[in-house]
Each structure stands twice: as structure tokens, then as C-alpha cells.
């Protein structure tokens, strides 16, 4: 049964990825005016001659019908060739590989920060449900989702870099360069995860096997931290996994605030420069990561929780 | 959340009053949104300074009686710019949310009611839209169309309607088979009238909750994209743009970055509290939160 489910899910993921590639390619045709002219004007810093425009079109394959261009592009992409930047003759994949570590580092650190806040906060909130502790943790979580993360980044810079002078303002490097960006990124996520841990803990706490564990004489501490938390973590894993795709939303602004040369910074720079191959490359990569991470989490969820049925019946 | 529901025989005003007494956070949220409304409507007539007026002699002054939130790099009054900025931010949030609601509701209603191949196609469209991280797609669309507030609104509307479509379709599917809908079909009421008279009312509650929470997230997204440089352009007083230009003077003028962020936080928090409150009021069982940009 699992195999059949897997096949149908993989098929639908491939369908979505195909559509994603069409849209990613099509996006640049939203550009007002002729892309070749716009790009050349920026490159040459003056209006190009008609001849230059013709040459550029032929060179980039822009003189062919759009669907032919797309087929060529997709063929190259499937072979791992994402094209070459319009500005420096570097390949898009090389630029992305260069930018990737700064982003992954930030995303992982941000997720760790969010878990470090959310697990204790969510568990306490559930155990002391409807008490003052619960309410305070919910209000703090609400603050967390209401704060613009880039602004939080500046506030952290103001306090820790400028006022206290203990952490660097920007750039990449050792762990000290990672702390502030990770906190700025992780706080908003923490709020979402806290709510989730709380709801999930409450659900599990009502389950019969928890009563059983309790009546078997296990201490409250073991019941909560071992039996309840372990089961409550299933949906938490799902959402944190989903956040890995979504975390890319947040890294863009954080990278700009802290001047980190990651994928988000690369994307923004490419958008302003109208460096379309780079824009396409980054969008395609983030969408693929997003789709695949959602898919994996889905599978994981089905495996972890035997109550989730797979269309028909689980093995 | 707990316990007693007010009796349905009491009027709606009375019920809301009771609810606010029971749910203080929702009351606070409503109060915050109310304050914002007052600022948007009356603020510009009350603040003594012009948000665009340059006064180089006064540049980068700290908070004082004359300028409660200081002045910026061109000597403009920060408080005045914040107050005018509220109009920009809320105007965008309301417009974008309205477009999302209309688009999403129509798609969801058609998909859920017509069903079959139409449903299949529309839901694939939703899947595809949800395959992109929202803010990144919005960023690229806004960037390619060119930096302006109008393009930012288009971008945010395009990436946000699908959540509504899903929610509306779900509600429609759950009421479609009810007796009163079948009865309407039996008396040969037209499909369009059934959709408008019987199905649309059932989706109003979830859409209202979603839209209130959405107003906050749109404010956040607008500020984020404007901060990057893809939304409001200087000299328009917009909160995200103000944080961006203020960040250049972070060493000398902490208030320039700080003040607009507090305004954003206040706004988003107000909508979140109010949205949660409305949800508890309408449907206390539904606790899940939709996290969208």
C-alpha cells in the first residue's frame, strides 16, 4: 500500500515541479518592454544600437519563440546547466553554490533557535494550560509573529553590536557572526512552533495511553517529558520540516540586514540588475526545495503516525 | 478556550460585549485596531508637521517636545511620517486582502460546487501556487514588474488567494449535500442562485477570520518588500522604506529604525489579536492557525 501511495505522490510532485518550471521560465516575460534592450541598456549604461540588440538576442537565444526557448532551457536545466549570468560570465550554478553555505547555515541555526524557544515554552504552556504561564507564553508567541524579522535584526544590532559592542554587526565568519541573524530569523518561527507544541501536547495528554502510563505509577515528569512529548513531536516535526522550505522566505531580508552573501542576497541583487538567468536559477531552486521538503514531511508523517491511513489501509 | 456560549436570543451587540469581557485579548486587539483607524482618519489633521517638508537645519534630531519621535536625515518629522505611513500600509493591506478574498472565494466556490474536472483543474492551480515560498514569489513578481506600490500589490494578491480558495472549497463541500441545498435544487433554483443564496453565507465566517489575520501578514509583507526596495519608493512615507533609510543612520539616530518597527508590530499584533478573537467567537473548536504571508 505504501508503495502505491508513494508512486501516486511522486507523480503529482513531478507534475507540480513541471508547472513550477514553466512559471519560473515564464516570469521573466512579465517584464515591461523588451528584455534584451533593458538588459543591454544596463550592461552598457547607454541605449544599445539595434544591431547590438540583434546580436544579444541571437547569442542568448531570445530570437526564438518562447516555447522553444523554454524547451531549450528545461533541457539544459535537467542536465544541471542553469545558464550564465548576464553580467559576469560565471555560471548560475557556480554563483548559487557559492551562496548556499551562508543560507543553509543561517536556516539551520534559525531553526535550532526556534526549537530551543518553542519546545520548553510549548510544553510549559500545555502542562499549565489556562494558567498565567500559559497566557504569558501565548502573548509572547503572538509578539513573535507580529515582529518584522528584519526590524528585529536591527534592534539586535543596536543592542548587541552598537550599545554593548559584543557581537559583530554584519558579514559571515565564526559563530559570533551567526548568533544575531539566527535569533532574528528563529523568533518568528518559534512562535508558530510554540503554538503547535502546545496544541499537540494537549491532544496527546488526553489520550488513554497517557492515563495508563500515569496509573502504572510513572512519575509525572516521565509521563510528560518522555511519553507525551515524544508523541506530540510528530506534528511538530511536520511543521518544522515545512518551515525549512518556508524559512527561505525569511532568510532573504535577514541576509540583507546582516550583509550575508547568501541565496537571498543573490536573488535580490539579480532582480535589481535584471540578471534573469540568476533569478530563474534561485527561484527554481527554492521552489524545488520547498516542494520536496513538503513531500518528505508528508511521507515522514505517514510513517511516524500509524493512524494516518494511506488512501486505503496501512500495511 | 472555555465554556459558556451566550444565548442566541441576545442581540449581536450584547453578544460582542459579553465576548469582549470574557476574552480580554480580543478586546485589546479591537482597541488597537480602533486606535489605528482613528490615526488613519484623523491623524494627518492632528500632527503639526508636514511629512514631506525638508528642514536641513533640523536633520537627525533626537526626540523632543517639538518632534516627539525625532527627525530624519532630511529633517522631516518622524511622527508625521509614521502617521501618514499608516494610511499607506493599511490602504495596501485592505486592498490586497480584498482582492485575495474575492479571487479565492470565487475559485473555491466554483471548484467546490461545480466539482469534477473544473474542481480538479482549479485545485491543481492552487497546488502550483503553493509550491513556491510566498514571499520569494512575490519578491520576484514585484521585481520583474518594476518597483512600485501598484506592482507590489499585484504581487501580494497573486500569491495569497489560494488559502482562501482551499478554505472556501472545504466549507462548500461540507454544506453542499445538506438538505436545504438539495431542497433548493428540487424546486429548480438556478445553480448560480444556490451558490449565492445558500453556499456563500456558509463561507463568510472562515473567510472573515482568515482575512483579519491576513491584514496583519500583508502589513508585514509590504514592509518587508518595501524594505528591500520593491514597494513604496522615497519620499513616500512607508514604514518598511523608513526602516531601510533609517538603517543608514543607525549609529547616530536609533529612533529612525526603531519607531516604524514599533508601528508595524502594533498593527500586526492588533489584527492578530482581533482575528484570534473573532475565530474564538465564531468557532471555538477550530484552533489551527493558517500561516501564510
Structural class, from helix and strand content of chain A?
A: mainly alpha
The value of Rg of chain A in angstroms is 24 Å
| Strand residues, percent of chain B | under 5%
The H-and-E topology of chain B, N to C, reads as HHHHHHHHHH
Which regions of chain B have little confidence, pLDDT < 50, spanning 5+ residues?
1-7, 287-293
How many independent structural domains of chain A? 2
* Integer-rounded radius of gyration of chain B: 22 Å
Q: Give the H and E element order of chain A.
A: HHHHHHHHHHHH
The description of the largest β-sheet of chain A is:
none
Count, helices of chain A: 12
Task: Give the largest interface.
Answer: A-B, 50 and 49 residues
Please explain how this structure is put together.
The complex is a heterodimer of chains A (315) and B (293). By secondary structure, chain A is mainly alpha-helical. Chain A is built from 12 helices and no strands. Chain A has helices at residues 2-27, 35-44, 50-60, 66-78, 92-127, 132-146, 149-163, 176-205, 208-215, 220-257, 263-273, 276-304. Mean pLDDT of chain A is 82; it is low at 309-315. Chain B is mainly alpha-helical and 293 residues long. Chain B is built from 10 helices and no strands. The radius of gyration of chain B is 22 Å and the shape is elongated. The chains are: A mainly alpha (315), B mainly alpha (293). Chains A and B meet through helix 1, helix 6, helix 7, helix 8 and helix 10 of A and helix 4, helix 5, helix 8 and helix 10 of B.
Amino acid at each position: 500500500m505504501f508503495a502505491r501511495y508513494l508512486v501516486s505522490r511522486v507523480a503529482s510532485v513531478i507534475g507540480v515541479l513541471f508547472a513550477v518550471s514553466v512559471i519560473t521560465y515564464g516570469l521573466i516575460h512579465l517584464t515591461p518592454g523588451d528584455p534584451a534592450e533593458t538588459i543591454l541598456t544596463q550592461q552598457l549604461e547607454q541605449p544599445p544600437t539595434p544591431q547590438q540588440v540583434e546580436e544579444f538576442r541571437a547569442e542568448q537565444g531570445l530570437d526564438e519563440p518562447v516555447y522553444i526557448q523554454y524547451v531549450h532551457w528545461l533541457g539544459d536545466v535537467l542536465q544541471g546547466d542553469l545558464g550564465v549570468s548576464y553580467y559576469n560570465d560565471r555560471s548560475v550554478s557556480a554563483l548559487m553554490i557559492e551562496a548556499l553555505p551562508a543560507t543553509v547555515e543561517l536556516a539551520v541555526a534559525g531553526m535550532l533557535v526556534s526549537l530551543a524557544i518553542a519546545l520548553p515554552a510549548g510544553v510549559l504552556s500545555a502542562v499549565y494550560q489556562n494558567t498565567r504561564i500559559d497566557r504569558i507564553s501565548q502573548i509572547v508567541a503572538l509578539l513573535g509573529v507580529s515582529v518584522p524579522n528584519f526590524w528585529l535584526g536591527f534592534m539586535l544590532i543596536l543592542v548587541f553590536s552598537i550599545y554593548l559592542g559584543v557581537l559583530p554587526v554584519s558579514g559571515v565568519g565564526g559563530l559570533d557572526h551567526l548568533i544575531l541573524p539566527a535569533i532574528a530569523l528563529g523568533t518568528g518561527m518559534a512562535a508558530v512552533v510554540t503554538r503547535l507544541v502546545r496544541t499537540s501536547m494537549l491532544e496527546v495528554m488526553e489520550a488513554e495511553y497517557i492515563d495508563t502510563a500515569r496509573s502504572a505509577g510513572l512519575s509525572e515528569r516521565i509521563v510528560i517529558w518522555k511519553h507525551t512529548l515524544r508523541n506530540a513531536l510528530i506534528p511538530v516535526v511536520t511543521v518544522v520540516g515545512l518551515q525549512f522550505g518556508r524559512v527561505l522566505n525569511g532568510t532573504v531580508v535577514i541576509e540583507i540586514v546582516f550583509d550575508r552573501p547568501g541565496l537571498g542576497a543573490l536573488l535580490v541583487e539579480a532582480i535589481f540588475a535584471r540578471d534573469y538567468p540568476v533569478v530563474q536559477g534561485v527561484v527554481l531552486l527554492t521552489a524545488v526545495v520547498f516542494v520536496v521538503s513538503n513531500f518528505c514531511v508528508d511521507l515522514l508523517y505517514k510513517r511516524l503516525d500509524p493512524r494516518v491511513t494511506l488512501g486505503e489501509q496501512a500495511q | 478556550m472555555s465554556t459558556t456560549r451566550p444565548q442566541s436570543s441576545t442581540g449581536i451587540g450584547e453578544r460582542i460585549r459579553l465576548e469582549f469581557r470574557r476574552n480580554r485579548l480580543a478586546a485589546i486587539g479591537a482597541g488597537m485596531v480602533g486606535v489605528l483607524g482613528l490615526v488613519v482618519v484623523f491623524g494627518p489633521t492632528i500632527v503639526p508637521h508636514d511629512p514631506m517638508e525638508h528642514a536641513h537645519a533640523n536633520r537627525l534630531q533626537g526626540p523632543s517636545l517639538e518632534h516627539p519621535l525625532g527627525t530624519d536625515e532630511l529633517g522631516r518629522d518622524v511622527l508625521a511620517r509614521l502617521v501618514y505611513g499608516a494610511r499607506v500600509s493599511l490602504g495596501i493591506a485592505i486592498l490586497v486582502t480584498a482582492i485575495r478574498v474575492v479571487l479565492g472565494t470565487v475559485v473555491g466556490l466554483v471548484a467546490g460546487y461545480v466539482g469534477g474536472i473544473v474542481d480538479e483543474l482549479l485545485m491543481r492551480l492552487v497546488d502550483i501556487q503553493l509550491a513556491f515560498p510566498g514571499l520569494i514569489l512575490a519578491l520576484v513578481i514585484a521585481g520583474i514588474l518594476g518597483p512600485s506600490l501598484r506592482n507590489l500589490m499585484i504581487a501580494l494578491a497573486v500569491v495569497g488567494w489560494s488559502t482562501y480558495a482551499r478554505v472556501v472549497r472545504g466549507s462548500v463541500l461540507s454544506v453542499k449535500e445538506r438538505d436545504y441545498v438539495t431542497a433548493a435544487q428540487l424546486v429548480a433554483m438556478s445553480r448560480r442562485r444556490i451558490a449565492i443564496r445558500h453556499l456563500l453565507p456558509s463561507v463568510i465566517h472562515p473567510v472573515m477570520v482568515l482575512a483579519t489575520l491576513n491584514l496583519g501578514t500583508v502589513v508585514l509583507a509590504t514592509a518587508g518588500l518595501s524594505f528591500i526596495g520593491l514597494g513604496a519608493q522615497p519620499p513616500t512615507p512607508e514604514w518598511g522604506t523608513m526602516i531601510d533609510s533609517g538603517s543608514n543612520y543607525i549609529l547616530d539616530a536609533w529612533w529612525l529604525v526603531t519607531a516604524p518597527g514599533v508601528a508595524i508590530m502594533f498593527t500586526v499584533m492588533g489584527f492578530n489579536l482581533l482575528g484570534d478573537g473573532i475565530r474564538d467567537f465564531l468557532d471555538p473548536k477550530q484552533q489551527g492557525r493558517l500561516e501564510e504571508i
